[in-house]
Amino acid sequence: MASMLKGMFSKKKRYAPIPSEQAKADIPEGLMSKCPKCKKIMYTKELKKNLKVCDQCGHHLQMSSEERLQTILDEESFQELMGDWTSENPLEFPGYDEKMDADRKKTGLNEAVVVGEGSITGSEIVIAVMDARFRMASMGIVVGEKITKGIQHAQKQKKPFIIFTASGGARMQEGILSLMQMAKTSAALKDFNDDGGLFISVMTHPTTGGVSASFASLGDYNFAEPAALIGFAGRRIIEQTIREKLPDDFQTAEFLLEHGQLDKVIHRKDMKSTLSAIVKLHEPEGARQ
């Protein structure tokens, strides 16, 4: 018995070998992805199949504008509008041109929002998608103008307008010209609403600053993805101003829903079907071929 116990406790534990630097270098770039919330490592291909939602904790990772359009619109239905529009440097802000060039090269986009026409399960819409990879989707002159023109195009074509927002707010390199886009986009939405247009706003992580305080919050339906950060000023600034500690879930989509500032928090897997149902609900009789 004693010899058996000795044998049991004398066994050495086996550990997986630590990958060498060469082994790490041999792993193709982009093959694996890590969830920023629970830190789970997963195959990037499988993550994309799951609409970039972590299968362990349910965290919704950020999507590019291209990925978003592919998950929402019918295949090959998207036609981009104003795709060649680019920003200049109206205030001659130092280093701005170089940063813009770097983002264009990194993302393949000319600006932080993609606008165009497409269809959702056969229903024609105009859609705008903000892309946080480009200047954190900050709102400059061209971003505001593209969204405004998209709204006006939807009004002219008698189509619903849907926007997916994700932004750090106004673009500081364009100063007051950036802030003016809040009023311009809001005025365009007022005309669109007066003409009976349907506007659906979907706020994704993060939607902050001047974007959250203007067009993002003016939808006939205001939706958000789970746990998305939505707010105007930052948490620390608010706490210092009111001299109070804010709830842990403050400025999350769930907090806003509980306090009546959102209509629904929608999981990404349900987004297309939900938008399709709403668009069809508002279609005039005989609108579809």
From TrEMBL:
Task: Tell where it localizes.
Answer: Cytoplasm
UniProt GO MF annotations: acetyl-CoA carboxylase activity; ATP binding; carboxyl- or carbamoyltransferase activity; zinc ion binding
Q: Where are the zinc fingers (C4-type)?
A: 35-57
Q: Name one GO cellular component term.
A: acetyl-CoA carboxylase complex
List required co-factors.
Zn(2+)
* Gene Ontology biological process terms, A to Z: fatty acid biosynthetic process; malonyl-CoA biosynthetic process
Q: Please share the entry's free-text remark on the cofactor.
A: Binds 1 zinc ion per subunit.
Record key words, sorted: ATP-binding, Cytoplasm, Fatty acid biosynthesis, Fatty acid metabolism, Lipid biosynthesis, Lipid metabolism, Metal-binding, Nucleotide-binding, Transferase, Zinc, Zinc-finger
Which EC number(s) does the record attach to this protein?
A: 2.1.3.15
Entry-linked Pfam families: Carboxyl_trans, Zn_ribbon_ACC
The reaction(s) catalysed by this protein are: N(6)-carboxybiotinyl-L-lysyl-[protein] + acetyl-CoA = N(6)-biotinyl-L-lysyl-[protein] + malonyl-CoA
Q: In which pathway does it act?
A: Lipid metabolism; malonyl-CoA biosynthesis; malonyl-CoA from acetyl-CoA: step 1/1
Positions bound to Zn(2+): C35, C38, C54, C57
CoA carboxyltransferase N-terminal domain boundaries: 31-289
Q: Which InterPro entries match?
A: AcCoA_carboxyl_beta, Acetyl_CoA_COase_Trfase_b_su, ClpP/crotonase-like_dom_sf, COA_CT_N, Znf-ACC
Subunit structure of this entry? Answer: Acetyl-CoA carboxylase is a heterohexamer composed of biotin carboxyl carrier protein (AccB), biotin carboxylase (AccC) and two subunits each of ACCase subunit alpha (AccA) and ACCase subunit beta (AccD).
**What does the function comment of this entry state?**
Component of the acetyl coenzyme A carboxylase (ACC) complex. Biotin carboxylase (BC) catalyzes the carboxylation of biotin on its carrier protein (BCCP) and then the CO(2) group is transferred by the transcarboxylase to acetyl-CoA to form malonyl-CoA.
The protein in question is named Acetyl-coenzyme A carboxylase carboxyl transferase subunit beta
- Tell me which species this is from: Aureibacillus halotolerans
